[in-house]
């Protein structure tokens, strides 16, 4: 299976899976409108219109009136590609349902709140490149031991150890499979560094995971 065939599937992203980010927001989550910290994974979709591929140009977002938005940001995650129908599986067996691993970049508007799903900020056309390829699951001994880096124009901007996630890959597969049935080829982006990286028009973004590859995209505009 190539990443080009995955654009017809669904992509589920996990927000707030960075332990450090959760700790920094703890006091905010105890206030209105949240009232308490999240007790379950915070999920959002990147629908089909957002899916893109390695090497593609990501269009700079525009506001409702067609004017360029003032700022965009990007995060990178390990993408867990489901290998077979997955429904209500335990954490102990969850990795047996993984077909492979890839990289997901999420270009979006800067997040201001986690209380309501940010449809506008997360559903921009072409804003979720996936790639550069799918590495078979048996080639990655422990997905939680991987490290996700993100560079802009060759300069390292983010370094996220998946060991620092609030919930492991297996835990997330198990929990999500109890919410929805996952089909072969569908992807879970398991966690992003809490600090998204600000990007500007024309910049080149490299998301890299050792053993998985480097996903490269550029932002449109001069």
CATH fold node name: Fumarylacetoacetate hydrolase, domain 2
CATH architecture assignment name = Alpha-Beta Complex
CATH class: Alpha Beta
Rough outline: globular
How much beta, percentage-wise? 35-45%
| First and last CA, distance | 35 Å
Helix content: 10-25%
Number of domains: 1
Number of helices: 4
Oligomer: single chain
Question: From N to C, what is the helix and strand string?
Answer: EHEEEEHEHEEEHEEEE
Rg for CA atoms: 17 Å
Q: How many beta-strand segments?
A: 13
Low-confidence stretches: none
What is the average of the pLDDT values? 91
Helices, strands, pairings?
Blueprint: E1 11-15, H1 19-29, E2 42-46, E3 51-53, E4 57-58, E5 72-82, H2 91-94, E6 98-108, H3 119-122, E7 128-136, E8 147-152, E9 155-161, H4 169-177, E10 187-189, E11 197-199, E12 204-209, E13 213-219
Parallel strand pairs: 1-10, 3-7, 4-13
Antiparallel strand pairs: 1-2, 5-6, 5-10, 5-11, 6-7, 8-9, 8-12, 12-13
Features:
4 helices, 222 residues, eight-stranded mixed beta sheet, five-stranded mixed beta sheet, mainly beta
Q: Explain this structure to me?
A:
By secondary structure, the protein is mainly beta. It has one domain (3-16, 41-219): Fumarylacetoacetate hydrolase, domain 2. The chain is built from 4 helices and 13 strands. Strands 1, 2, 3, 5, 6, 7, 10 and 11 form an 8-stranded mixed sheet that branches. Strands 4-13-12-8-9 form a 5-stranded mixed sheet, with no helix packed on it. Strand 12 and strand 13 form a beta hairpin. It is globular, with a radius of gyration of 17 Å. The model has no long low-confidence stretch (mean pLDDT 91).
